């Protein structure tokens, strides 16, 4: 399912019982879902009613015999219950699971009875999650990440001037099945900071940002490109003195970045502070881009407009997202992803120029 509070609660509930999670993108078709369910022997899926049909179709392929139960976060409809029954699947609401859990805990506290599923925290070497990538060809590829892998990435990012505080706010909109968002959210929760969830519609993302006014923002370049194009289109449409002032301010602040200056006494209050407030980005103190290369002009544009460090990193699913990260102190250079983070070692290997043509 899409990012939501229940997604995160369900995952941490699973961890508290020593279990591992297998996140599935809500856009996956029944064939891919069936493949992942079969490969992992998954028994239970948590989703919204919208995804139930895909799960039923996956079950009906006959390739995932261990898949038995569906927990829906938005309630069970009689029609869905009937369809699940015909597919030999159990379906239950998350509310019922929570009620049962509260009853079991209450009974245990009153009568000292034994709880069937008591908390059993995992060790660092236990598998935390099966993180599936789309794969360039064929079926998705699953990376097995341990709790030590995730914690190491969190600590490494915190050592790179990305230490959240209690007052920080994070808007969760990048897909949670992707390891980048999972690590960022884990870091936020570790610090006791706040997480808001977007409404699930990319077209409403800007409205969600305005409502949340995040302080820390992980981004994918496609998001920054859209915001950049929207702002520039507005400036071009305004034309006249407004456009001239904006471009003069952008040029002045670009030159200031080369001298280590993020702020400008005239153009910030006159232009840029108003724009970033209109975008809901007036509380941001740091931005990190990942998942794809970010163009130099767009990175410089956001450094000028926001007046904050905009960093770029590189990582892989197999390495729990963290591999390299540019420095928060480096506010001028572009076109690179920094050096290794504290939890990683990087080895460079020469590859003959014609290797790729022979593959």
Radius of gyration: 23 Å
Shape: globular
Question: Number of folding domains?
Answer: 2
Mean pLDDT: 90
Structural class: alpha/beta
Distance between the termini: 37 Å
Strand percentage lies at 5-15%
What is the share of helical residues? Answer: 40-55%
- The CATH class label of the largest domain is Alpha Beta
Relevant CATH superfamily of the largest domain? ANL, N-terminal domain
General description of the model:
Helix 2 packs across helix 3 and helix 6 packs across helix 7. The longest helix has 19 residues. This protein has two domains: about 120 residues, Rossmann fold (3-Layer(aba) Sandwich), CATH 3.40.50; about 200 residues, Rossmann fold (3-Layer(aba) Sandwich), CATH 3.40.50.12780. It contains 13 helices and twelve strands. By secondary structure, it is α/β, with parallel strands linked by helices. The protein is about 45% helix and about 15% strand.
């Amino acid at each position: 399912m899409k990012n939501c509070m229940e997604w995160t609660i369900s995952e941490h509930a699973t961890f508290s019982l020593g279990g591992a999670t297998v996140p599935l993108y809500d856009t996956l078709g029944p064939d891919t879902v069936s493949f992942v369910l079969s490969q992992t022997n998954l028994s239970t899926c948590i989703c919204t009613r919208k995804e139930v049909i895909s799960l039923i179709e996956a079950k009906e392929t006959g390739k995932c015999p261990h898949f038995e139960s569906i927990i829906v976060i938005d309630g069970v409809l009689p029609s869905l219950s009937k369809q699940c029954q015909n597919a030999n699947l159990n379906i239950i609401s998350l509310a019922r699971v929570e009620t049962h859990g509260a009853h079991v805990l209450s009974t245990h506290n009153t009568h000292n009875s034994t709880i069937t599923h008591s908390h059993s925290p995992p060790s660092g070497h236990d598998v935390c999650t099966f993180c599936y990538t789309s794969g360039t060809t064929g079926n998705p590829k699953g990376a097995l990440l341990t709790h030590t892998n995730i914690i190491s990435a969190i600590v490494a990012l915190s050592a790179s001037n990305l230490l959240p505080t209690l007052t920080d706010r994070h808007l969760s909109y990048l897909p949670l099945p992707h390891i980048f968002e999972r690590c960022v959210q884990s870091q936020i929760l570790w610090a006791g900071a706040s997480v808001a969830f977007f409404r699930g519609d990319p077209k409403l993302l800007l409205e969600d940002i305005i409502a949340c006014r995040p302080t820390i923002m992980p981004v994918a370049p496609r998001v920054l490109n859209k915001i950049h194009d929207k702002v520039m289109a507005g400036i071009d449409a305004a034309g006249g003195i407004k456009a001239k002032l904006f471009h003069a301010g952008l040029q002045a602040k670009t030159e200031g970045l080369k001298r280590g200056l993020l702020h400008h006494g005239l153009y910030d209050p006159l232009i840029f502070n108003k724009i970033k407030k209109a975008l809901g980005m007036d509380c941001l103190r740091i931005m990190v881009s990942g998942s794809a290369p970010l163009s130099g002009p767009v990175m410089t544009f956001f450094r000028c407009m926001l007046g904050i460090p905009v960093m770029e990193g590189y990582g892989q699913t197999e390495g729990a997202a963290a591999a390299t990260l540019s420095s928060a102190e480096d506010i001028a250079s572009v076109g690179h992803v920094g050096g290794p983070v504290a939890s990683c070692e990087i080895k460079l290997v020469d590859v003959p120029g014609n290797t790729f043509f022979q593959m």
